[in-house]
Specification:
CATH class of one domain: Mainly Beta
CATH superfamily of one domain: TolB, C-terminal domain
Oligomer: single chain
CATH architecture of one domain: 6 Propeller
Number of helices: 3
Structural class: mainly beta
Strand order of the largest sheet: 1-26-25-24
Radius of gyration: 21 Å
Length: 312
């Protein structure tokens, strides 16, 4: 009888310790709503747009209806350009170390990469060369890290990494690495996509309820479990990382942004469906800047909300 009580006491102690540790970890991280991206006329009401934060300067790029809009560190629009028929349909934009803007667009079903100056004036076409045999260049996302260009073809679940001059350094077929049969059976494809400061590629696959990390050494890891409770995945979408190595994942179904540490342990989540400024509705694309501000694109014309996630 005494042994049973001892086992019960030990079990209760373990549970209480785990709960205390989880609460302490969550308490160390404090998400806070800052503002919504705006123009002089007020908050801009976008719907599920692409957002990209400049990692070298305090500017943010939004692509919406073939126009690139640029915002300063206070979330105020300072410049915009686009509607150039020569560029075709713009799908994404990113800034390089020198402040040039790299545009990814399509014209006559052909993917184009254009280098523009800081005012959006085209200065050169970047030709993607040295691709592996049988691989054609297609992409709908572009990110720039460490002087390298990362082009993601979300529907094909692949990423092409090039030098600044367009010469291909590596092409990664994630569908093959994960398992073509599993990917095809689940109808899986990449949705969220980012690259951290160390060159690791992160992406989400909503139908598999997984987040993947592909390290520069070729290691592929994943985490995630489907569910409706905190830390579980409903319909995941965007992904971003911060300077601490935390991984942020948006969930359209649960209307939250989840925060995981660098070892993929769940830390906390924020947002929740509602009409208040700090709430989120169908959070979609994510981005983080060098100040670790988090940019969350939403549905229902909620635009882009900006948060800070401090602590740890």
């Amino acid at each position: 009888m005494i042994e049973i009580h001892r086992r019960t006491a030990v079990g209760v102690l373990v549970v209480c310790t785990l709960v205390l540790c989880a609460n302490t970890l969550a308490a160390q991280v404090s998400p806070k709503y800052l503002y919504t991206l705006s123009s002089v006329l007020g908050p801009l009401h976008y719907d599920g747009i692409r957002v990209n934060a400049d990692q070298d300067r305090d500017e943010t790029y939004v692509v919406y209806q073939n126009v690139v809009r640029i915002f300063n560190q206070s979330g105020m629009e300072i410049f915009s350009f686009g509607d150039d028929l020569g560029l075709g349909g713009i799908v994404d934009a990113a800034a390089d170390r020198d402040g040039d803007i790299i545009l990814l667009s399509y014209k006559d079903s052909r993917g184009l990469v254009t280098r523009c100056n800081f005012r959006g004036v085209p200065v050169a076409r970047v030709e993607i060369t040295n691709l592996p045999a049988g691989v054609a260049f297609r992409a709908n996302r572009v990110l720039i890290r460490g002087g390298l260009f990362y082009f993601a073809d979300l529907s094909a679940s692949s990423v092409t990494i090039t030098e600044a001059d367009g010469k291909c350094r590596q092409h990664v077929d994630f569908a093959r690495l994960i398992g073509a049969d599993e990917v095809q059976k689940a109808g899986a494809e990449m949705f969220g996509f980012t690259v951290d400061r160390d060159g690791s590629i992160f992406f989400t696959m909503p139908t598999l309820a997984r987040v993947y990390k592909y390290s520069p050494d070729g290691t592929l890891k994943y985490f995630g479990r489907a569910g409706s409770s905190a830390g579980r995945f409903g319909i995941i979408s965007g992904i971003a990382t911060d300077s601490r190595g935390d991984v942020l994942v948006s969930d359209k179904l649960r209307s939250v942004v989840m925060v995981f540490d660098k070892d993929f342990n769940f830390v906390t989540e924020f947002g929740y469906r509602g009409a208040r400024p700090e709430n989120l509705i169908v959070p979609d694309n994510l981005a983080t800047d060098r100040q670790d501000r988090v940019y969350v694109s939403q549905g229902r014309r909620r635009g882009v909300s900006v948060f800070t996630v401090t602590g740890q």
